[in-house]
Protein 1
Amino acid sequence: MLLSALKRFLIGQPLKSAELGEQKLNKTKALAILSSDALSSVAYGPEQILIVLVTISTVALWYSIPIGVGVLVLLLALILSYRQIIFAYPHGGGAYVVSKENLGVNAGLLAGGSLLVDYILTVAVSISAGTDAITSAFPQLHPYNVDIATLLVVAITILNLRGITESASILAYPVYLFILALFILIGAGLYKGMTGAVSPDMHPSLGTPVAGITLFLLLKAFASGSSALTGVEAISNAIPNFKDPGPNNASKTLAAMGLLLAILFSGIVYLAYAYGIAPKAQETVVSQIASQTFGRNYMYYFIQGTTAMILVLAANTGYSAFPLLAVNLARDKYIARMFTIRGDRLGYSNGIIFLSIMSIILIIAFKGRTEHLIPLYAVGVFIPFTLAQTGMLVKWVREKPKGWLVKLTINLIGALISFTVMLIFFITKLGQVWPVFIFLPLIVYTFHRIKRHYEAVGEQLRITTCEPAVPIEGNVMIVPVAGITHVVENSLNYAKSLSPDQIIAVYVAFDRDTEKQFQEKWADWQPDVRLVTLHSHYRSIIQPLTKFIDTVEHKAKESNFRVTVVIPQFIPKKSWQHALHNQSSLLIRAFLLYRKDLIVTTVPYHLKK
Amino acid sequence: MLLSALKRFLIGQPLKSAELGEQKLNKTKALAILSSDALSSVAYGPEQILIVLVTISTVALWYSIPIGVGVLVLLLALILSYRQIIFAYPHGGGAYVVSKENLGVNAGLLAGGSLLVDYILTVAVSISAGTDAITSAFPQLHPYNVDIATLLVVAITILNLRGITESASILAYPVYLFILALFILIGAGLYKGMTGAVSPDMHPSLGTPVAGITLFLLLKAFASGSSALTGVEAISNAIPNFKDPGPNNASKTLAAMGLLLAILFSGIVYLAYAYGIAPKAQETVVSQIASQTFGRNYMYYFIQGTTAMILVLAANTGYSAFPLLAVNLARDKYIARMFTIRGDRLGYSNGIIFLSIMSIILIIAFKGRTEHLIPLYAVGVFIPFTLAQTGMLVKWVREKPKGWLVKLTINLIGALISFTVMLIFFITKLGQVWPVFIFLPLIVYTFHRIKRHYEAVGEQLRITTCEPAVPIEGNVMIVPVAGITHVVENSLNYAKSLSPDQIIAVYVAFDRDTEKQFQEKWADWQPDVRLVTLHSHYRSIIQPLTKFIDTVEHKAKESNFRVTVVIPQFIPKKSWQHALHNQSSLLIRAFLLYRKDLIVTTVPYHLKK
């Protein structure tokens, strides 16, 4: 009762299935909830480029401008091609569905598997990053990093269990505040530049020759910068969460997200270049830009605060996309069916809870230091990116719809760039990225195992298979008894009322005296019920009992009799009292049910005090 | 299978009940196993006295001699009076039984409760102390203190689960090595003193006047020194573990333990005085004595090593005494009956496991720093000491056996000193000792609650109560069905074979279409079985189902029909596959059994692949 009241308080009253429509998102809320991952990467994406370039010299930092342009091209290609995916697959599922339908099952499972893992990594990485931002501001909280991160995951989980519209309403403010904050920052920075407050001496001019620059290094910088594009695919997975017409609304939201991401990304890259900012271990690039633009005044703290918030909220994108992707995989029987069940508030609560548990495990296992999971996470995004674009390519070639050459070109460019980025990741960061070669095959293998199991079950249960049921010619009932009590009486009366062909009471004795005594008492009390006494040398009840039941069952099978074990169980009034009684009946029940082909009947006797 | 093989490997093959006699202890082993707690206190008891005295001045250290004599008197009184208890109560139970029989139930429960808690503290405190000794020798292990302590508890638990004779055989060596080590130390120290190698200038002469000494301080030093006597009562609890004749063997073992304890204690106290040793934070008194006697050679390390071992093994006394005390309390129905069950190797495994879990919890909760539990632990010993002696007093006055005046005098002295020590603890260390005022009443209250519950249950189950069983006039069977499958067919056939008065199949639908479809299919498939379809707005199966069952049950009760819920359950071949299926039948079963007065029958359908 207490637990259920607590659940109601945290999650809210259950919703009727018919209220599903009301739980759908309009574009403003969807943008907030589904793009927080992509937008938050602006806070670290540009920095990743600079970190690679600065290893040569600060002069090399001007390369961030052409590399930034490259990232924007990739962004454009991804947005356009995911727009095509949204219309082609209006029921969502994104990379998984696209790859499965066009490239075959294994490609689909590869895409689906990497995305599932990726959303878990999204949650763990972004919550850890957000926690770091918080504890950097309040260093006395630093020892509690893992606890704070775990609490944040729990809080986001509760919000998501309350339902997506409700969480969207709460989470939209910080996202839009972050966008506002960065717009102000970029606007103020550009204004400063135009009024001449930023001298050209602060940065190397574009095209300055740089000694020691290599293509490898530039590609590495480009790949690092592309990590700002993680999260772009989330909208295509989550179309079912949009208000009707889903695909239209989703594509408009995608366009808005692309535009915002492009503006914020180029703004930050440009300002970092203009101010000649080099990455520092103790201060983020965004923080440097903000303090150069405003000094450390309230605007600076506004920007830092909203950045910390968006990093935490990026996790929420995982919460929106993971359960829907899981539903798609579960409907195809590649993962457990429970992921298709809607919870009290119509969200797919099993997916939400699974995601939380996995990410909490990651946070605890890595003690909140999940930064070195980032390359793994980025490569896990570009695998499905590449597969999805290639899938679309194949689709256009196969179907050749009106204007297919344009569509083909878009997806071709997307596929080529995604593939290149993926390759660069594998080449330049193999040391951090190798685990995908182990866990992706493992995941795909598990998917197949699960599917095979579901299909075998379905086949065995289907009533059309011709194997006729074994007819039941009679019933034997075995009643294990522990004494001469009302509980036993109650069970015996029940067994008698069903008039089986035979009732056998079984008593397990630990020594000969008790055995004899019991037999005598029984003969007085229930002379018409056959009593079998068993002797236990090792003080175990289950062992002699199952041995006896085996014998009975063996005989019964010969004449098509069914064996039912009738277990007398008394049930105390209060639950703490259970601990005071041997749970032998529980053990017997579990043991018999799973190991043997027996019917187990529990006859409860409720105590009144 | 794997688990049970692991269990066999760790614990050994199960023993027959008839082999109980072979599991009993001879005196040598019993001394080792039951006196390790008392003997180990020699390693810290004398130090406790010096720590109090040195707060005045180093001159005051000579008072350790008269205080030591006082402790020896108390030891003598305790040994003599526990000897009397052993013969008066040859079945063991010690302070609990003595107090209960002579002073009333509550006194007994107070004694029993404090001893139970005390044995848990013994294990936690001595394992922590032993771990400290180990990690002092290997400082690089220091961060793993809690892990090492936990592992040690687990190791001792496994030894004890293997059976007491086996653990005694292994654990006897270190105990006797420790005794040997201290004998050599004391012998060498005395020899040095006699050969004049110890100058009288090293220590103040006895009787030197000391400024600022108070009675309060001396009493505090005495009480602290008395903590060396914890563990003296263990033998009286454990008489059933002795080879026949138990009481004789136990009393001889007790005498041997008393003698050893007296020699070791006085030796250490005297040498500490003779060398003029003051307690140091970084080095124990025994270590100081050893290094002054031998220098830091191999003998020094032999003494230090065996001391560390005996500290760990002191825990084992708790393992011998706790389960036997628990059996006594459980037989009287004050704690759960499970404590009376002998495990595979004839030890009371539930008591052993409970003790381990509780002490691991304490170790983890206090992060291995359990020193400040020592006063609590000491006071928890002197409460039952006092009660037991007072109980014996009352017994002698009441029964007046031959020579009762001598016996009375012994117990009177014991009771008075124990009571005084207890009072001193309360007065001088109230800040550390106050929790007993909360948890002891709580424990006694719980004991009574449990007893009342067992008595109520017994009364309700006893067949002699005149309430006649309600006759069963007929049976209704409800079969929840989830589809048209072999599993359902199997259950329906079973229900039919018992020919109840009515069979009702119940189907819970989430929307109207499925509901209608199912009704049609059912009418084709099982036209003779009545189908009831229920509609669930909130996607819950249990809620509408229980509501329906309630209605049926209500009607059935009017005409004395019994309601059986027949649950079809298919059982996958491998256990990992369970996770892939909704565990609704499990939930339904648990829910129905505990909340309602229904009979629950599970009909398994075992999948073949």
Protein 2
Amino acid sequence: MQQWVYRFSSELTEGNKDMKNLLGGKGANLAEMSSLGLAVPPGFTISTEACTQYYKENKTINEEIKKQILAALNQVEKLQKKKFGDKTDPLLFSVRSGSRVSMPGMMDTVLNLGLNDETVKALAEKTKNERFAWDSYRRFIQMFSNVVLGLGHSLLEHQLDDLKTARGVKEDTELNAKDFQELVTVYKSIVLEELGRKFPSDPMEQLWLAIGAVFNSWHNPRAQMYREMHGYDSSWGTAVNVQAMVFGNMGETCATGVCFTRDPSTGAKIFFGEYLVNAQGEDVVAGIRTPAPINEKSKNESNKNMKTLEEIMPETYEELVATYKKLEAHYKDMQDIEFTIENKKLYLLQTRNAKRTVNAALKVAVDLVSEGMITKEQAVLKIYPEDLNQLLHPRLDPKAKKTLLASGLPASPGAAGGQIVFNSETAQEWAKNGKKVILVRQETSPEDIGGMAAAQGILTARGGMTSHAAVVARGMGKPCVAGCSALMINYNDKTMSFGKDKYREGDYLTFDGATGEIYEGLIPTIEAQMSEDFATYMAWTDKFKRLDIRTNADTPEDSKIARSFGAQGIGLCRTEHMFFAPERILAVREMIFAKTQVDRKKALNKLLPFQREDFVGIFKAMNGLPVNIRLLDPPLHEFLPHTENDMKELAASLQISMNEIRERKDFLHEFNPMLGHRGCRLGITFSEIYQMQVRAIIEAALMAKKDKVVVLPEIMIPLISDHKELELLKKEAIEEIEMVFKELGNKIEYQIGTMIELPRAAITADKIAKHAEFFSFGTNDLTQTTYGLSRDDAGKFLPIYTSKNIYARDPFVVLDQEGVGFLVEHAVKIGKKANPDLHCGICGEHGGEPNSIEFCHKVGLDYVSCSPFRVPIARLAAAQAALKWPATAMEKHGSVKENRI
Amino acid sequence: MQQWVYRFSSELTEGNKDMKNLLGGKGANLAEMSSLGLAVPPGFTISTEACTQYYKENKTINEEIKKQILAALNQVEKLQKKKFGDKTDPLLFSVRSGSRVSMPGMMDTVLNLGLNDETVKALAEKTKNERFAWDSYRRFIQMFSNVVLGLGHSLLEHQLDDLKTARGVKEDTELNAKDFQELVTVYKSIVLEELGRKFPSDPMEQLWLAIGAVFNSWHNPRAQMYREMHGYDSSWGTAVNVQAMVFGNMGETCATGVCFTRDPSTGAKIFFGEYLVNAQGEDVVAGIRTPAPINEKSKNESNKNMKTLEEIMPETYEELVATYKKLEAHYKDMQDIEFTIENKKLYLLQTRNAKRTVNAALKVAVDLVSEGMITKEQAVLKIYPEDLNQLLHPRLDPKAKKTLLASGLPASPGAAGGQIVFNSETAQEWAKNGKKVILVRQETSPEDIGGMAAAQGILTARGGMTSHAAVVARGMGKPCVAGCSALMINYNDKTMSFGKDKYREGDYLTFDGATGEIYEGLIPTIEAQMSEDFATYMAWTDKFKRLDIRTNADTPEDSKIARSFGAQGIGLCRTEHMFFAPERILAVREMIFAKTQVDRKKALNKLLPFQREDFVGIFKAMNGLPVNIRLLDPPLHEFLPHTENDMKELAASLQISMNEIRERKDFLHEFNPMLGHRGCRLGITFSEIYQMQVRAIIEAALMAKKDKVVVLPEIMIPLISDHKELELLKKEAIEEIEMVFKELGNKIEYQIGTMIELPRAAITADKIAKHAEFFSFGTNDLTQTTYGLSRDDAGKFLPIYTSKNIYARDPFVVLDQEGVGFLVEHAVKIGKKANPDLHCGICGEHGGEPNSIEFCHKVGLDYVSCSPFRVPIARLAAAQAALKWPATAMEKHGSVKENRI
């Protein structure tokens, strides 16, 4: 028979801290503390599997589970020597949810379960404390009505407030037993009136309803939304903890509180906490009364005159200190502990690894290592890589007042505020005049680069997490919210709205690129800050990681930033961004309009010095590190002028008619540019373009070499679908390179390789590998083609897909291991077999995403490449992957596949 | 040591007819005839491998090959008792190319090789025939200078004509030895003048040059083009046949001729041929003299008064008759035989399976079976499936004069002529008035269906073999030339040009959809004709094929045509084409503009009766056969109005502003519609659309069932990328179906399945198969995504790709077995393993292409589906595949993969 219920008590404990998936975090830790011999009120945990079973059986708790619950309940009765529902000495329970990760939105807690008109009297009698008993009863009705029966929270709350007003008192503690008894009567009549049902008086009925309510709350809209945001699986389910009540509200020798073993906002080694005398747990959270500091160090402006726990119950405080030390040593991490004191006796209700800021996390990790409590390996595994974002980008001041206007995709982290403008030119102009601007566009295109660079942040109405705006913004380390579907832009009027109010050019707006939230007006931000522990910690990651971390950078500036963050080379230098500067774009357009190869070459020759200069700068910034340069990738029509003005300018400059410009534009128009005349297809049809680029790279490398720079250029040919493309283009490239070597009388080592970004390239990677020195997986495009999904168009329906759980995560954010990953793994396997010297990396946006990096590690890639501001995140993720999946473990299993979670 | 040279003679023959790949067709058959004891002048064949080696070694014939050639040459000398280059009794050679398939454009023949100023005298002396010797010499210089030295053909030819004019004669036979001797002198001086080199007099030099010229001709532009057109591999290489000369030009007892064992244009069992007295082989081909009939039955208007071979050399003729019968019986096929008679002795120079019209081929195949010469299996293997096109579509009259204007892709076979129009409305209007029109468009869209149906044929400037125009035209059996890149259209002026002359609306044009060629004016056409043998032959194919042949049809009319061609069901019924009729499109647009689900449902309810009616018609036409209906696939913006007028009409009808229409169009615009919001993504986001369609299908099925029609509906959900999409949509479909069953109080069997058209679907086919009753491979889209190649945009560079041999064939025409095929095979394998009842077919355009059908057979698909007019082709291809790859052979090898050629 399957075990659905796990008990915990000083006598018998069936769980432990490692059983979080089955018992939830709370249940696992209650079991662990029980085993440690700490004073935990006895109880039992109904497993997450029981929750799954509940949904399978159409939301019913089956007989077997009920049986196991009743058996566990009996055992608690025996231990406590009381009976649930007993009319002389009733046992009461708390019922609390607990999934494997804490999840706001789920049902939290019902205390004092088991009280009714009879048991309340027994409780009063037994404890000789009528006020306590009725206080507990009214609390129970309040909580149960709200979280189990679904009655609006404020309805009963108001009654309490009204009563206090009527009595002329401020604090609950000033009310007496009679008052509470009255309240109970009023509460019950409101429940009857509002819900059309009597408040359930049978303790067993109360229990079943409460357990069901916890299970149901797993699928609360808020919990669902939270799971989606964090990529948690909706199949996990929640556990339910049923635990004997202890009372912090039995009088002045009773209390309830929360403490942290270190300071959660700085990580400093300070024992820190708050408590309330004569109260129950939820009073601390609800903020009805101001809690007191547990010790001197916990004092602040608002509580500095209150008595500390240390003062009023020194022995209990000492016990608490001993307990926190024991727990921290046991869990080897900073703890967040909930406790209740019943008649000076300390009970522990929860412990967990404390939430903390990333600065605190770094300090705690570094301190724990120097205290000898954990190893560096353990320290490196402690921080979620994405959290480093907090260190690298400005944040909104958490204390500022905010009016949320709308939400979009959190495309590039960081807070940005400024005046809205609707085109790139205005953005640059205003920025030049010292204004802070937010660039608002339907979507961005390569033409907008200048405006994006000038803006504080970018906001778009269309496009997904790997849209142009998102990718470029991340590259620049610039905040961006993309695909805000509520955003309607009118370029003509220079206005925008999120449905109702209109915003004009120059109006202020602030957004948070880490959450996707957009706020009215200008909100203060906190600048990025890197603690002194950051360097120590990051140095540890480099010890453990197997993957190299490169960066995607197109300019010397970006290259320098990335290098300062620890990048070990450039994994993707896109050459096309270089084409958009005003002095270059004309030559590009001249090239596009050329009618003969001779004219095309003439135009390309004008571009050559620019490209060469860019490359020299990048080579210098990356002295001694490899620089992977991708030859031209986008279709030529991306470089054509869009506005009437630009077209006129071009016509004048090329001395051709506007008609000719329009015809050329028409001719170059493509129905599906993503699947069109781009990448190596340009190189095949216009070999002179790639020849010019190859020449620029090699000439630049030789120039840098002259200046004693160590240059390691890698020439990358994009969008290969067949090995013959690479064979031909490689041959042509080598011919050009040999010519340059001859002309300049000098040589240099270089590599030629390809992007693997089409399914067919992955499928035939063995043949391609014979002509390639490296593979770089372009997982953006590979995801697009494997899914048949345009990243620029998916914004309209992808949110529906993730909300219906059809796609667990946005595949442009987290690499799809099953489909896209199959192709990557296949290509690495057959590619390295065909060419053992093949060097493999990834340069898609996934190269900076921790889950995807773990996958890259497991399938045996040699490096990942990501935008400069994600390099630290990638370093940490790579180190964690290596610690989780050491080479030995992988070899032992023979296949990386079998090794996947 | 590798054998590079294979000898043939009455004494020693090293090849046979099955060695075509190594010896070429000509060499293999020369060897075969030698072995049969027929009088074949001795000689040797230099293998195709030697040709490949020649290219490998930078166009040199290596020493080993030369050694083997000289050894073989010596043997011929011994047999003929003459010596090559000998000054008393010289041996002469013919040198001819011969690849595995006959290939126009390659170097053909050099006769009389070995002659020079000395050997010509010896030949004259030895044969006592000075005229013959000098005639042979001048012929040799003429041929050698042209085909080996590359001198323009007409230069020497003119000298011959001038001489005849000077002598006042008409025929070469009227010239004497002296005349030819003079010609030789003139020829040699022209060679020296034009080429700056003396005509080579050393026989060995002549031989090496001739062999090299044959090898070089393999890469002639014309030969290359021919290979591309026919998909032949450029790596094959050509063999060279070097053979002792026999002479048809030694006098009146000599002759040369060609005969066919049956009539190549009708297939009738008539021995048939032409000959020339006192001539060499090329005279027959060159048409310098009118050849005479070999027998009474070969007489026609132009030669009826000439003497037959039967009359002038009855014994030799009898020998020829005996020989042809022997050859036909041996080869079990109609032969095309070249012979030379030297002093009444018959020599055979070539035999091969005769080229024939498809009608002749059918008759020959059926006759050979009834004559007991071949089995039905052999008969079915004799006809190339594509050739059946000749039977099914009108052709250009081969005798008509034609002025070629341009070429495009041969998108849909058949000849079409008429007046050009530039839009669908005009096409329909003019056609209504009895005019024959050609619809000329940049590209077509679903809106053009009406005009396409009204036109004789469709001509487009853009798009590839699977563009909208091509696919729809093939479906309609309507001729189409697509992607004619030279075509410039000006819609405003209603004019077009191919670079120079302008053509206006109403001008006449004719094109051949089978070749892609476009001609000026109206050219007479010959109607499609099906011989009586067609039915007999096609019935045999059905005996052997394992694959079912279904059709892609969207209307009852198409369904009926396809069924008459032998279709065994519908493999793809596209529902969206049904939406474009004027009375329906408004409801579709209303649905698109609906702001709420309620409004959307209201609009959909207007469409329901139309869809239901269509389905009833199709079910009736396909009584007893399965009908696979695909739910809505294209993105909604395809249904929006494009012209200002249509937009105004819509605005009026929906009572909304033009602004709102434009905004909606903008909102629905997609950057890459092929990768956008389409297919099942529509079903996921607007479930009511699929619900309506499913309801229409099932209601129609139940209505048809009432009329005693046997209905087998299959509901196909397109563009699945993840099994969860199918799971959800299937559940919703079943709910709707159960509702219809309940409402109408009747039930029906049905299937629900999916298209596999995205790489991810193929990769995860095992999971998808658990929710699908069938897979239909949409290889058009699968090719697009696997290659990252838009079929609508590829037209601009795909021709360059195939011409540079980067892609051996257009992957939209012939299924790419290596890449796309990998995914198909993978999906079938894991899909059938996960669900053994899974039924698999293909509905992409490849389903009608013979090579691809063979692949489908081999990987174990259950059916292919193609446009109605390709059904016979598919039936034949499927039968051939089954005969080539019987189940036993496939089982024996265990894996279909190993079994591939």
Protein 3
Amino acid sequence: MSSPFVIVYGGSGALGSVAVRLFKQHMYQVINIDLSSNASADHSIAVPSSLQTLSEQSAFIADKVSVILNNRKVDAIVSVAGGWQGGNAASDDFIGSADKSIKQSVNTSLIAANLAARHLCPSGLLVLAGAAPALKGTPGMIGYGMAKAAVHHLVTSLAMPGSGVNGRVVGILPVTLDTEENRSAMPAADFSSWTPLTTVVEKIYMWLTSPAECESGKLYTITTENSLTKFE
Amino acid sequence: MSSPFVIVYGGSGALGSVAVRLFKQHMYQVINIDLSSNASADHSIAVPSSLQTLSEQSAFIADKVSVILNNRKVDAIVSVAGGWQGGNAASDDFIGSADKSIKQSVNTSLIAANLAARHLCPSGLLVLAGAAPALKGTPGMIGYGMAKAAVHHLVTSLAMPGSGVNGRVVGILPVTLDTEENRSAMPAADFSSWTPLTTVVEKIYMWLTSPAECESGKLYTITTENSLTKFE
């Protein structure tokens, strides 16, 4: 019997590479989808930057995944591709940054949903990346918040009967993740209020392996205080 | 003193053309933005179908609007461009229809928000088009519901301090509008539960001219029962 498969979308990024490492430790075959390869994954699908539209990217990725899986199913799809953009409607690059947020967060989540409809096993788990601040209005980061709100709605729809996805679907809604990039950008911040990447990934692994711990359709807000992290 | 300006985005469509007509009756100078011209408008900006990306469309429209306005302000921007797509994550054209919904609903709303930040007067009104069903999950029309949920979030953000938009911002969330297209598509439906286009447009005009009647940031659900329409 061969090892089960998982797909990590964004597996070359900060959170995604930690997910790749953890699933490898647990003997999964990991398919990474990102702009660049991750040598720790069993398979990396590097999406060429020449593919700019959602349809082109989706078709490219769907083909590669089908060839790798060869009719086998995946246990989990963890979509943590993304990026942050600030700015309000009066910002010079409002349209450009909103467009980037749609591409980074919405389009990747749609592609992950499409892969889930095709390849996720009925006991499997689809995880999409939202953001806790987008549960309210976000006047200082309008495009980003809007894109994450779209992802939240997608989680809700995908978890409902008739969505075309068999398996559980959840959203992870961090406030601030403790990444090297965030430490460089905000060196004076209180890191004990940031969420460690391993904490997020271990929770996802627990949801996958202990289904009763995970409520499908739920948007899990992730808050950290005094180095203690809550998912609720 | 010259007549005040309004912009109708989607002013060649079913709801938009009724809006153009009403604003003309009330002596406004109407700028229509759509894929085709509307001869009833004072100015029509026909967006060439060759402009496929958000950035290209936005730049094209922003230039034309700036030339027409020549530093004058607009009293209202009514964005009612859009379209409906069904389908779940297992549909053959899931990605294509989600992409179309983003372009039709999200991109047009972002462009309208950008125009509002540049040209709306502080007592003015920005109206964006959401959808009542998207207040919940929409497993049978996943991309459409997601796009409308993004528009709802955009309304919330734009109405908050620091959004870059001066003036009021509201969402209109119909269930089913009484259009010729809908009558053709659903000839056996109960038309007395559909909302007449003039009712929606007259309400928008009332919000514009009687600001106390309109709560900025609100997502107005529009329901019609026995030919009686409620905005709440």
